[in-house]
């Protein structure tokens, strides 16, 4: 088996998840998968941060509505690490439109919407790096050894 590459990724647990009491459920799914939480905090997003984070959507008709929704309550931001973490988390989140997301994914199980779709997850290693820097100060990220590491990955993957 090929040696795996450690990646970091960012998840934003959105205001709809907070309002619908889904924080524990979402963190539970990410933890249970074997991802390592290296940063976690609650924060309120403002226009400046949302303008940066969703810059690629700024000309879309849903941009103002999206910002209003993302400011409607605090969010939880989580930085996670693991081998192939970006793809693993994207698969756990499911595709944007909740109604069409597979059952078993976060969006498939908890969302009917394109906007109120419970979580945001970084779409590439490069984006993840920028997004983690955007939402976390260096001292808010933690480097530590997780005791279940050798049971989450096979010996050859860890080599
Ligand atoms: P996210 O993964 O955070 O990335 C961009 C966000 O824009 C997306 O999740 C949705 O919350 C939102 N979004 C994408 N497409 C639409 C749409 N057609 N209408 C409303 N909101 C959308």
Automatic annotation (TrEMBL):
The active site is at 120 (pros-phosphohistidine intermediate). Transmembrane segments: none annotated. Belongs to the NDK family. The gene is ndk. Homotetramer. CDD domains: NDPk_I. It is found in: Cytoplasm. Residues 6-143 form the Nucleoside diphosphate kinase-like domain. This is Nucleoside diphosphate kinase. Its main location: cytoplasm.
């Amino acid at each position: 088996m090929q040696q795996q590459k450690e990646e970091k990724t960012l998840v934003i647990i959105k205001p709809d998840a907070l309002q619908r009491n889904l924080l524990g459920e979402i963190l539970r799914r990410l933890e249970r998968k074997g991802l390592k939480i290296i940063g976690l905090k609650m924060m309120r997003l403002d226009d400046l941060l949302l303008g940066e984070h969703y810059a690629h959507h700024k000309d879309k008709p849903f941009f103002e509505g999206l910002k209003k929704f993302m400011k409607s309550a605090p969010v939880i931001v989580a930085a996670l690490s693991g081998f192939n973490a970006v793809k693993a988390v994207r698969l756990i989140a499911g595709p944007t439109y909740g109604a069409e997301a597979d059952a078993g994914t976060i969006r498939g199980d908890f969302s009917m919407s394109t906007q109120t779709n419970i979580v945001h997850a970084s779409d590439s290693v490069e984006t993840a790096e920028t997004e983690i820097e955007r939402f976390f100060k260096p001292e808010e990220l933690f480097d530590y050894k997780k005791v279940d590491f050798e049971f989450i990955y096979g010996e050859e993957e860890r080599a």
